[in-house]
UniProtKB/TrEMBL annotation:
Domain of life per record: Eukaryota
Biological processes, Gene Ontology terms: protein homooligomerization
Signal peptide coordinates: 1-20
GTP-binding among keywords: no
SMART domains: BTB (SM00225)
Domain BTB: residue ranges: 33-134
InterPro entries: BTB/POZ_dom, SKP1/BTB/POZ_sf, T1-type_BTB
Organism, as annotated: Zophobas morio
Protein name: BTB domain-containing protein
Length: 144
């Protein structure tokens, strides 16, 4: 009974600060509100709220405790995926959009990452970006 009362109190406190959506996911898990990630060797820091913002995604399943996750030697949550491309996944989770650099050459790989993370909105945005690129256009310049 005391655990149930604590859970109700936690839910009320989170709701007071506009974080009511997190209450159900945090009550059974030990995930902090700020998450340190190691994605394929690239380090990221974000919020639990961002990681669970897409309810049907793999990240939502992991960070609500429905799927297991490994921690590295420093306690960061480790995913064996492309760490460089994850920055665009994280941008999408934060804003619901993705803006790719003009000279970005990894669209197909990013689309596969989005599929792996079960993010159909990101898959669609990347696919639209690929389709909307003007065919036969040569861009002169250097991309870093």
């Amino acid at each position: 009974m005391a655990d149930q009362q604590r859970g109700v109190a936690l839910a009320a406190l989170l709701a007071q600060f506009g974080l009511g959506r997190l209450s159900a996911t945090m009550s059974g898990c030990d995930f902090p509100s700020v998450i340190e990630l190691n994605i394929g060797g690239v380090l990221y820091t974000t919020t639990l709220k961002t990681l669970i913002s897409q309810p049907d995604s793999q990240l939502h399943a992991i960070f609500t405790g429905r799927e297991p996750v490994t921690q590295d030697a420093k306690g960061r949550y480790f995913l064996d995926r492309d760490g460089v491309l994850f920055r665009y996944v994280l941008d999408f989770l934060r804003d619901g959009t993705v803006v790719l650099p003009e000279c970005f050459r990894e669209r197909e790989r990013l689309r596969r990452e989005a599929e792996k993370y079960l993010l159909p909105g990101l898959v669609e945005a990347i696919s639209n970006d690929i389709r909307n690129r003007a065919p036969g256009v040569i861009t002169v310049g250097y991309c870093a």
